[in-house]
Specification:
The chain has 365 residues and is an alpha/beta fold. It has helices at residues 3-14, 20-27, 31-43, 95-105, 120-129, 174-179, 181-185, 198-210, 222-225, 242-249, 256-265, 305-318, 323-338, 350-360; strands at residues 60-63, 67-74, 86-93, 110-113, 115-117, 139-141, 148-153, 159-165, 189-193, 215-218, 237-241, 270-274, 280-284, 289-292. Its EC number is 2.7.1.83.
Length: 365
Amino acid sequence: MNEKEKLILELIRKNPFITQSKLAEELDLSRSAVAGYISSLTKQGKIIGRAYVLPEPSRIMCIGGANVDRKAQAQSSVQFGTSNPVTITQSCGGVARNVAENLGRLGSSVSLLTVVGDDQEGEWLLSITSPYVDTSQTMKVEKMNTGTYTAVLDHDGEMVIALADMAIYDTVSQDFIQKRWSHISSASMVLLDTNFPSDVLQMVIERCYQEKIPLCIAPVSAPKVKKLPANLNGVTWLIANKDEAMTLAGLESGNVEEACEKILTLGAENVIITQGEKGIVYKNKKGEHGTISAPKLKVIDATGAGDSFTSGFLYGMNNGESFEKACKLGMSCSIIALQTKETVCTQLNEHLLNQTYKQYFSEEA
């Protein structure tokens, strides 16, 4: 590369959506000269496609929800029809966002593709997430609220009612994905939650299948798992809790092994079912299957443990670990989450994850 090409690459790193006109203005070049340099950089493989995506072979792309979670806990018995004194706490949420931040804290290169409102909540979410995650693919939607989930709890901590404003996710279209596909396709693997509309989920699954991009599905809930298409060809890993797995498998009763088998017949290559204190069950098309018991420990808060498992698992797979060790790294990451009140543990890093893995799964240390 010559000096001009290096300068252009540096500007693109700072803003992948910078226009050729802006590049020309910044570098005091003609637009035609910039077009020539861009063509040369594309042929060299330094940038990919029209969106000026820089190739990052180990980058994980997380697609899905980013919302604000609030808990309002009553200070005394809830009285309906009148004002109740409460204590309100607020945290970042959304499966894709949580997984992305966890991965970023573990040192992985990770991008988040989501939508937020052009509002204070959206700004707050991005300010918390951006230090660990590339949020350049996130779109701000005017006249829409950032997704919020509010749980009202009684004074004993039991839920009275939960309120969800997630209408913003319905604005996501296939065109939104298509415009960002060059960035998605340059990732080493993709994490997809089920917050976006059904046709968008199907498009991502089909494109990953066609382009052989490893894809992990993390359902948000049992109702939202129904958004997934009947054909799961293209899903490399499906990670679900028991309720989500049973719903996806169409089983009202039965055991998790049956659910695993059914989901494999739908097209998924690997299925992992998390069962809380009972540990996990896994099965894949290669014939590998088994269980990993969860160690006994004092649980402070289970919020975010499922997202943490997915994060640790993807961290392991992206670093070339075996399927079983990646599962144990996932469990190690969830152990860390279970021992804090935070949805994403702010102390999480590679050293802590490896320490936890050695403590609870020392036979592979």
